[in-house]
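Please check this one:

***
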Amino acid sequence: MKKFLEVYDLAKKYPVKGEKNKYITIFENVTFSMQKGEFVCIIGHSGCGKSTILNNLAGLDAPTSGNIIMDNKNVKKPSLERGVIFQNHSLLPWLSVLKNIKMAIACKFKDLDKEGIEKRALHFLEMVELTDAVNKLPHELSGGMKQRVGIARAFALSPELLLMDEPFGALDALTRGKIQDKLVEICDKTKQTIFMITHDIDEAILLADRILLMSNGPEARVVESVEINIPKPRNRAEIVKHQNYYRIRNYLVDFLVNKSSKIAKDIQNKNIDDSRMPYTISFPNDENTEKLAI
């Protein structure tokens, strides 16, 4: 199957202040791909470069080396074909909920008339259950409502790739759970291609088709790609009953607690070959775990 997004040998290095020709490597040799309609989460400890990778994918920041190819085009700068949802809501405070979304739609869909723009905005606000708040200003909304507006705005633009940088990290557990459920529902309807950063293992298992695991930084790598072999759409009350749920969850916890730091030391000491990373980890519906190199 043809890959929609391909990332080859991506690296990011920063010069060390006061030391000529010396650099610190945040990550390097990062290689992975995505299919159209796939939901991929990336997990790793703070400082491994997850947000930098996302900014590279968005075209907001240039990698030191490597290539990003989306739909046969090199990613070099920002584009409306790639939408971003950041940790904060990023709404314009002087515009109402509806006007925030209408302005974004007008920028993307130049041929839509005013009626079409409003109809599209209301459609996506209905999907996130905010039709009663269309005329409110951002300061009149709760944190969860603001983030739902951000989600509605992003999906209303129908980007080829939606990038999400821990969008629910600042929300309380109950609100986060409700928005996660809504995201599951929207993704099932739209088949949107999504790359998402998260520190929440349960969130990743609920949402993702695959989870990319990074070693600790500096000199981080995307080490493994874990396939989530649990049928979609998923329900948080039912997913825990699936035979693979805790097998996957325990594997992810073990990687983050034990393996990620050990792999980082092996990389820094050049005791490990990273040329075949990431490795594919699959949990079939039996007791065997397959480990294959991509």
Q: What stands out?
A: The mean pLDDT is 90. The domain at 5-81+164-172+191-293 is CATH 3.40.50.300 (Rossmann fold).
